[in-house]
Amino acid sequence: MDDYYETLGVSRNAALGEIKSAYRRLALRYHPDRNPGDRIAEEQFKRVSEAYQILSDSEKRHLYDLYGHAGLAGMDTGGFSGFDDIFGSFGEMFEDFFSFGRPRGKTPRPAAGADLRQQVVLTLEEVVQGKDAGLVVERRVNCRKCEGNGLEPGTSLETCDRCGGRGQISQSKGLLRVFNTCPQCRGTGGLVASPCKTCRGKGLIKEKKRMQVRIPPGVDEGTRLRLRGEGEAGTLGGPPGDLYIEVQIAPHPRFSRHGQDLLYRAPLSFVEAALGTEVQVPTLNQGPARLAIPPGTQPGSRFSIPGEGLPGLRGSHRGDLVVEMELKTPTGLTPRQEELLQEFLRLTGQETPKAK
Fold first, then answer.
1. Phi and psi at residue 62, to the nearest 5°
2. Which domains does the chain have, with CATH numbers?
3. How much is the pTM?
């Protein structure tokens, strides 16, 4: 029995794309339309088709790799009796390789409508509370006058005179007969002689829709909310697309966001840092919070206020408000202030060049 890999001329670790390319090349070479009356070519055509049927099927290929032809016992491995049998087995895949021999008959099918995207900008305060956002969405919907078929009410499609209603036209190229979609009716087989005056035969019209969308608390930059069926209308009865709401967070003058935590930088003089103090820290909730700063606090030290951050998107616990200390150096000192600072240096065993 033939080795399927040798029949197609590929290695045993060949990818599916390589197998398809090899099959296409060999099938074109041995196709009966190119070799009329050649029994050897016809037999070879059946062999490469059977090899492709096995190696393009992951389950059959796995069994063949493990056990050879014995692993395929009882399974449909081809056994083609003729050209029509091969076409019936491979279906549209085979016809995609070869646009000849018979019409493909691919008529337009219902298609889903396009998805739409709309941006919503939130402040951090709105992230905490959530927001009811008012949107105006412009989209294409089915024409109400013709119900999306593009025909003036009371009229119907006329048979395409170019393809005779088949949706396909044929052309001979040597030994091959090529079938293509009719360019006049675009494969529908019919022509719109009396287009709808409202949509001009397109079946769709533009419409603006106002809607309210609830943005839940805790959303982050780039969060996308999906509204099913709120996109553009489908064609030929296809379902409408979806509307995606993309969230952007506006910069805040006081806080920066880090996940569910907020960071606030609090100014602190070196005297307050040395002696300790109590500072007021703004929050996004009820009002400012008071935070005790211990003596000897260093610049860049961080303190957390639990629960004063942002909520989780699915109702999880709130983050923290992280307060980072920024040293504020005084400027424009009075002579008395300079004198006191020099005295402080002497007490600590340090002196500035000016003091010396």
1. -60, -45
2. 4-97 (1.10.287.110), 106-152+199-251 (2.60.260.20), 158-191 (no CATH), 256-347 (2.60.260.20)
3. 0.58
